[in-house]
Amino acid sequence: MPEEQVTASRRRGDWTFLSNHAHVLVCIDRDPTTRTRDIAAAVGITERATQAIVSDLVEAGYVTRRRDGRRNHYSVVVNVPFRHPIEANHAVGDLLAMLDEPSKSLANDKTRDKKR
Q1: Distance, first Cα to last Cα, the chain
Q2: CB 56, CB 63: distance < 8 Å
Q3: Ramachandran angles phi, psi of 110, nearest 5°
Q4: What does the alpha-carbon distance between residue 21 and residue 98 come to, in Å, rounded to a whole number?
Q5: Long-range contacts, 43-50 (Cβ 8 Å, 24+)
Q6: Which of 36, 38, 52, 95 has its CA 20 to 30 A from that of 46?
């Protein structure tokens, strides 16, 4: 198999449902004093990409940033709706709550599967 096809098939297999913006938001929600270096490591992106995403989230009103000495302290604004029309009837807090309580989500999924 040519190298181009191998690379393309690997890329298709490496996708996730959540974007890097969502991953960064989850990291900030879980630890408001986290460093961009730690977020970058957790998400698997560069520090520069992390800084750009944090700036996007602050600019869009999803996150506030406060300087505390040499560190930043972040806060997620949970009542801001998603940007895309498909999910605009949900706030980011809905996503964060779902990701914070996996056992409840899994129980709901099992119930939903039985109804199908």
Answers
A1: 40
A2: no
A3: -65, -40
A4: 16
A5: 45/20, 49/20, 50/24
A6: 95
Give, for all 116 residues of the chain, the pLDDT tens digit: 565 655 555 667 788 899 999 999 999 999 999 999 999 999 999 999 999 999 999 999 999 999 999 999 999 999 999 999 999 999 999 999 999 876 555 566 655 555 55
User: What would the two tokens of residue 105 be?
Assistant: 């989500």
How far is it, in rounded angstroms, from Cα 39 to Cα 36?
A: 5
Q: What is the DSSP string of the chain?
A: --HHHHHHHHHHHT--SS-HHHHHHHHHHH-TT--HHHHHHHHTS-HHHHHHHHHHHHHTTSEEEEEETTEEEEEE-TTPBPSSTTTTTSBHHHHHHHHH-HHHHHHHHHHHHHH-
